[in-house]
Amino acid sequence: MKRAGWMVLVCLAAGGAAAQTPVETLYHGGHVWTGRGFEARDLAVRGDRIIDPSTLGPSATRVDATGRWLTPAYANAHAHITNATMETSRVYTDSGVFYVWNPNTIVQDAEDKAFFARPDTFDVRVAQGGITEPGGHPERLYVEFLAQSVYGGRPREWFIGNAFHYGSTPAEIDAALDLLKAQGADFVKAYLLNSERYAELRDDPSGYGRKGLNPENFAYLVQAAHARGLPVAVHMETAHDLEVAASAGADFAAHLPGYGGDDPEALNSKRITPELAALVARSGMRVIPTYGVIRGSAYDEAGALNPAAESQIALQRENLRLLREAGVPILIGTDGRGPIFSEAEHLVEIGVATPAEATRMVLETGAVLFPERRIGCLEAGCEADFLMLEADPTADISALRRIQTRIMQGTELATTPRPLS
Fold it and tell me: How far apart are CA 294 and CA 302, in angstroms?
């Protein structure tokens, strides 16, 4: 459990002792999210919890929420910049994102985790370093690029066991999982890239950064991670990667095939079939498409779709249609930092979700990422983490951006003026 909410100190007459009295607030006149849609009703808060309005005391503060839509706080299921600083925290919370999963990071220590446990910061769960094989993603990313631009020229050896782990054999997988458990990982990030070509790419220098784990070892990795109480999120590129992950019982697809700026000739390897969609549904896997990543290159400055991206957008549309028809849960993540608006808007723009459906995806993601907590709901007993929007996002998905007020653990957050891109 994260934290105690803010309290006010009241001095008692007897002996001058201090007792903590929770602040009570009634938000009245607004439209409150029910999990199915909005209804006109009041929302009451005591301390860091939502309560039955009929139990409020006479001194409760009243806030006029007329013309506002009250939603649970947002979550980002796939983000990589989660520094333990107030600047980073405010980037997330200003955009309404209170909960984040970071599926690959340099080891987060106890001091960092204490920062995220504060009552005024965003919540983060981390995989620590992901599991791959020598020369597999993300080794090249760290060693050739981030080592110079972010990590002051650190050598390759520093990143092994920190930013990534090797798992070429069951014994190496066990050792990596034990180290991750000792490092405090909340879940496991495992890498499958072009697994149908694993034998071809394994010893080919041109495969550097374009390969991942041996698919024959993947079921062992998932079983071993689950035995240690760690869910598994999978980086994937192709439909075969998704099939391997689903067959092994992995918990999350950290991307879906077709998320990046792919060569049109490679799109056939990204196509999900009805049979594969049914397999993913039976496996219980939840998927985080990160399909909005393409928006940076797919549209020109006027907002028109570039012809070269049309085939990839069509692939994304068909992949998600099949998965949704099969009943696969869709979570919202960006593969970046902060706002989740572009991902939700992208799903609406390409025609795979209505504004109401995309809104539900956004508002349901946090409870999946932090299942032991009462978040993503606005009922008595739920944590008082919510937003007040200026318009109804189920009618216009861009209304997710129009946040008037942010309440974290029962307390209104100050914001830093910045564009919400």
Answer: 16
